[in-house]
Each structure stands twice: as structure tokens, then as C-alpha cells.
């Protein structure tokens, strides 16, 4: 009897957390020598129906270099932090690379991930540091109609500041953590806004362990709320560095699942270093 083909291996990893069912889940799929077209990749991402699915392909001739692509349930994206961290976690924790550094060839260039000892006594516990491009923020000239649309989408929230990002998001500053966590955005109205998604953020209160809080909404990409968005923090680091006159942050994404990111902005190189942990919660094979 012919041996049944196993299919494409995948793992689901919760990123930017050290607890299962927190942080942001990503499916990490190992294509290896499997040839799959874009329609199949997008269909599988829709089947997983979580914020991101990533696809890893080893690059011949390199010990620790992989092609990496990211898909939401609706579209391929240019940059994704949590699914990159999840991919690196799978490679490091399963002994698939013999180095503390791995490179990913992506639509945003070559991105690196580094395994970092977290200094804790727990065996096998480690952080992953991602080296990403900074996403600049800038002033935005909105028409009265667009301003009203954004205010309506955010359910009348008090807006302290508003910026555009180089990745076609709008960054909106709210007064406090409470205004971020209690926000109930109107997804149908966000769909009509002149952007791919809306990042809301607020400075942390004095005495908090965090520097700032945020949430991210991207229904146009099939993700009503991204639980913890690494790429959004490439813009948040730029914005808050200008406001706080500092380059190192502890950030809190205030979604229901929540997540924590350590951030360093390298102004000279225009890079953002994102550190976080991850937990593998399931594994299996795609049979089709």
C-alpha cells in the first residue's frame, strides 16, 4: 500500500507573550520542497482565519536563511512582526537552525531575528529580537469629511493627535489607557476610512511599568483587531520617540489577549529592534 503523504507541516504560535492563549497567534507553515501557488497560500490563510499565517521556505546554500511570506485571511502583507517572531521561535525551539541568528528574505527586504537569553532560571526560556525597518509617521492633511469619518469610526473618542504612517495606516493618539481599552470602534466605518488600518495609542500614566499602550484595527485586511502588532510598533516607536525624547520603550498592546514588547529605536540606522517571547500551542499537517 502506498504510504500516505504527510502534507505541509504547521505550528500555531502565540507571539509577544510567555503564556498560551495570550499575545497574537500566527500559523507557521513549512513549505520545504512543496510548490504551492499564491491562491493556495491565501486559501490556507483564510482557513486558519487568524490574524497572520506565515510560509517558510529554506534557501539553498544558506544554513539559516529562509524565504518568508505573510498572509492575513484576505491579503498578503509587506511586513508582519508577530508572525516573524513566531517563525523564528519555531526554528530556534525545534533545533531547525544551528545558529542564534536567522535571516528572512521578505517583501520588506532581509529581516533578522536573534535568539537572546532572557536571564531567567527556567530552562529553555528565551527572547527573540527582531530587526525591522522604522516606519515613519508624519502630519496628515485630512478633509473635514475624512476627519468626521475617523471620529465616527472611533465612536466619538477624544482625539489628541493624528498622524499618517508610511505603511498607509492612521495613528490616533487618545488621552489615556482607559480611553484605549474602553474604545469600541465601528468596523463598518473603519472600512470607509482613507487607510488600511487605524492604530490608537496613549502614553502610560506616571508610575506605570509601560511607556505607552496601543490597539490596532484593520478590517480591510480581514483582521478587525490585531491582538499584538509588531509592524505597528515600528511606527509607534517613531512617534513616541519624538514625543518622549527617548529610544527605549516597554510597550503594551491593550487588546483582549494583550501583549508586551521591548523596543529599541536605532535612529542612526533607522531600525527598530522588537523583543518578545512566544509559545507554541499546536502543530499538525495540512492534508490538501
UniProtKB/TrEMBL annotation:
One Pfam family, short name please? PhzC-PhzF
Judging by the UniProt lineage, the source's domain of life is: Eukaryota
Q: Gene Ontology cellular component?
A: cytoplasm
Query: Which stretch is the leader sequence?
Result: none
GO function terms (MF aspect): isomerase activity
SUPFAM superfamilies to which the protein is assigned, alphabetical: Diaminopimelate epimerase-like
InterPro entries cross-referenced by the UniProt entry = Phenazine_PhzF-like
Sorted alphabetically, which NCBIfam families does this protein's record hold? PhzF_family
What is this protein identified as? Uncharacterized protein
| Upper taxonomic lineage | Eukaryota, Viridiplantae, Streptophyta, Embryophyta, Tracheophyta
Amino acid at each position: 500500500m502506498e504510504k500516505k503523504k504527510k502534507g505541509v507541516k504547521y505550528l500555531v504560535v502565540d507571539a509577544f507573550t510567555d503564556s498560551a492563549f495570550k499575545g497574537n497567534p500566527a500559523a507557521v507553515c513549512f513549505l520545504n520542497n512543496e510548490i504551492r501557488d499564491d491562491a493556495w497560500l491565501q486559501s490556507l490563510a483564510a482557513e486558519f482565519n487568524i490574524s497572520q499565517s506565515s510560509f517558510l521556505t529554506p534557501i539553498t546554500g544558506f544554513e539559516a536563511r529562509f524565504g518568508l511570506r505573510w498572509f492575513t485571511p484576505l491579503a498578503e502583507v509587506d511586513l508582519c512582526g508577530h508572525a516573524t517572531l513566531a517563525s523564528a521561535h519555531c526554528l530556534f525551539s525545534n533545533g531547525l537552525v544551528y545558529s542564534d541568528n536567522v535571516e528572512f528574505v521578505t517583501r520588506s527586504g532581509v529581516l533578522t531575528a536573534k535568539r537572546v537569553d532572557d536571564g531567567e532560571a527556567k530552562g529553555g526560556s528565551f527572547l527573540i529580537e527582531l530587526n525591522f525597518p522604522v516606519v515613519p509617521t508624519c502630519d496628515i492633511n485630512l478633509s473635514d469629511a475624512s476627519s468626521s469619518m475617523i471620529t465616527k469610526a472611533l465612536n466619538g473618542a477624544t482625539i489628541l493627535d493624528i498622524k499618517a504612517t508610511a505603511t498607509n495606516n492612521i495613528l490616533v493618539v487618545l488621552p489615556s489607557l482607559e480611553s484605549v481599552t474602553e474604545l469600541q470602534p465601528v468596523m463598518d466605518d473603519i472600512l470607509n476610512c482613507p487607510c488600511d488600518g487605524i492604530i490608537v495609542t496613549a502614553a502610560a500614566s506616571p508610575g506605570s511599568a509601560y511607556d505607552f499602550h496601543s490597539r490596532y484595527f484593520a478590517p480591510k485586511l480581514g483582521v478587525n483587531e490585531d491582538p499584538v502588532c509588531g509592524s505597528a510598533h515600528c511606527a509607534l516607536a517613531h512617534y513616541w520617540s519624538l514625543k518622549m525624547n527617548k529610544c527605549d520603550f516597554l510597550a503594551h498592546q491593550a487588546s483582549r489577549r494583550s501583549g508586551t514588547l521591548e523596543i529599541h529605536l536605532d535612529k542612526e540606522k533607522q531600525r527598530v529592534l522588537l523583543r518578545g517571547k512566544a509559545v507554541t500551542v499546536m502543530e499538525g499537517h495540512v492534508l490538501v
